[in-house]
Amino acid sequence: MSDVRIDVIAIGSLAANKYWNEKTAVREEYSTTTLVRAGKLVLVVDPGWPPEVLRSALYYRSGLASDAVTHVFVTHLDASHMRGIGLFGKAKWLAYEEELRYAQAEWPPEAPGRQALARLKAAPEKFAPGVDLYPTFGHTPGHASIFAYTPTQGTIIAGDAVLTRDHFEHGDLGEAPWDLEKAKLSLQDIVEIAEIVVPGHDNLFVCRGAGGLA
Ligand SMILES: [Zn+2]
Predict the structure, then answer these.
(1) Ligand 1 centre from 146 Cα, in Å?
(2) Quick check: 200 and 31 in contact, CB under 8 A?
(3) Chain CA centroid to CA 199, Å
């Protein structure tokens, strides 16, 4: 019996959602924050909300205090995906190796994310039985997702490889991904492997994978 359990802790938002006819930013942008538990692993993916919001959301949605979190994974190094990472002071902070290398080389020394970058380490390929790193390049150079699965169901915590359900249904990879072709391939991979998708800025949804996108 698999003990993998996935809970969305806080549903993300887009500053402007073109599928809601919004052309300019009308709200704060936050990532969807997800909790993955398997054995001793207590993993938070994309802690984009402010720390005080995440503290409450984690407790209200799981009964856990922030110091129970053992690992934090960020799908990519965007402020809206890591704003609350400081709440998890006892956890290991992780991202895909290539994403870290790119930021270390390209970010200016005064970039606001530099402090977090200094603490982030390269993520392992496997976090626990049934919880794997799943590279989904394209949105950024080293964008990566988490694939969490039981014998009967696979869930991808997709970060911005899938922005929202609307974007997914339209095969829309967002404005100006770093590499559009890689982003397309990543989306195809997601359609093929996952029954449930947790997007970067929306609630989770069920994916009818067979046949792919229209
Ligand atoms: Zn995002």
Answers:
(1) 15
(2) yes
(3) 7
> Could you give the dihedral angle defined by the CA atoms of residues 192, 46, 161 and 12, in that order, rounded to the nearest 10 degrees?
100
Beta strands, E only, the chain: 5-10, 33-38, 41-45, 71-73, 92-95, 121-122, 126-128, 131-135, 144-149, 154-159, 196-199, 205-206
The model's pTM: 0.95
- Distance between CA 83 and CA 163 in Å, rounded? 18
Report the DSSP pairing between strands 5-10 and 33-38: antiparallel
Q: In terms of Cα–Cα distance, which of 85, 96, 166, 107 is closest to 137? A: 96
Catalogue all structural domains in the chain, each as residue range(s) with its CATH number: 5-206 (3.60.15.10)
Query: 21's torsion region: left (phi>0), alpha (psi -120 to 50) or beta?
Result: left
What is the whole-number distance in angstroms between the Cα of residue 54 and the centre of ligand 1?
A: 17
Mean pLDDT value across the chain: 94
Residue-level pLDDT at 210 = 46
- Residue indicated by tokens 């956890």: 91
Ligand 1 is an ion; its neighbours by CB within 5 Å are: 160, 200
Q: How many angstroms separate the CA atoms of 130 and 108, rounded?
A: 37
